[in-house]
């Protein structure tokens, strides 16, 4: 079984995908980490994130064993990822890895922006997770606050809106819900409630 979880930044899709994978003992891939790793490698090579050749080369040689690198966490890495993710050559280079991951015998949960539409259009379950801009910015704000980092809520809100516009406005595999995806709005749900709703949806769709 393949479960595709798509949605914008801070919608709760990553937490949800991880819990679903653990619950069903399936493999889990946070595909955003691949784009984050490509952006990291482009910058480490001294290149510009908009440099198509450099980004494509980084995508072709990205090492999936480095996805647990703590440097990939955080909004700056996410923003950089969103820039290289606009480049069709980058997306093409990452496609086969994601598809091969999805084909494993134990089943796989993949979360990202284009899983239900491009990477695994054949997925048995497709969930498009959303939440209001304000709820997502507040989640990010509380995460930073719990780590003792001082950030401005308004800056986080602006970051989220800029990233959404870039991810859904690009020509290559823009973020949007697949026609056969179910929508899960987590604005007023905590992680446990979102998980409970997702389990119900999976029970109906699989
Ligand atoms: O899910 P995330 O915030 O880690 O993703 C970082 C960026 O990577 C996101 O803003 C756009 C890009 N991305 C993508 O284009 N397609 C995916 N399947 C996953 C992420």
What would a concise description of this structure say?
This protein is an alpha/beta fold and 206 residues long. The chain is built from nine helices and five strands.
Q: How would you describe the overall organization of this protein?
A:
It is globular, with a radius of gyration of 16 Å. Strands 2-3-1-4-5 form a 5-stranded parallel sheet, with helices on both faces. It has one domain: Rossmann fold. 53% of the residues lie in helices and 12% in strands. The model has no long low-confidence stretch (mean pLDDT 96). Helix 3 (52-60) packs parallel to helix 5 (88-102) and helix 7 crosses helix 8 (153-169). It contains 9 helices and 5 strands, in the order E-H-E-H-H-H-H-E-H-E-H-H-E-H. With 206 residues, it is an alpha/beta fold. It binds 2'-deoxycytidine-5'-monophosphate (DC). 2'-deoxycytidine-5'-monophosphate binds next to helix 2, helix 4 and helix 8.
């Amino acid at each position: 079984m393949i479960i595709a979880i798509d949605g914008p930044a801070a919608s709760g899709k990553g937490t949800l995908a991880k819990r679903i994978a653990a619950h069903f003992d399936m493999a889990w891939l946070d595909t955003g980490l691949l784009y984050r790793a490509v952006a990291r490698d482009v910058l480490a090579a001294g290149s510009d994130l908009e440099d198509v050749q450099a980004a494509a080369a980084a995508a072709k040689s990205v090492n999936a064993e480095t996805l647990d690198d703590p440097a990939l966490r955080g909004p700056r890495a996410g923003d950089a990822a969103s820039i290289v993710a606009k480049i069709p050559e980058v997306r093409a280079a990452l496609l086969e890895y994601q598809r091969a991951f999805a084909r494993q015998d134990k089943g796989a949960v993949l979360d990202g922006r284009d899983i239900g539409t491009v990477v695994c259009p054949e997925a048995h379950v497709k969930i498009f997770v959303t939440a209001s801009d304000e709820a997502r910015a507040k989640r990010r704000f509380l995460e930073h606050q719990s780590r003792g980092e001082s950030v401005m809520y308004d800056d986080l809100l602006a970051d989220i809106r800029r990233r959404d516009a870039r991810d859904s406005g690009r020509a290559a595999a823009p973020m949007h819900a697949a026609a056969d995806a179910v929508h899960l709005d987590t604005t007023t749900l905590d992680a446990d409630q979102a998980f409970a709703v997702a389990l119900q949806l999976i029970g109906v769709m699989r």
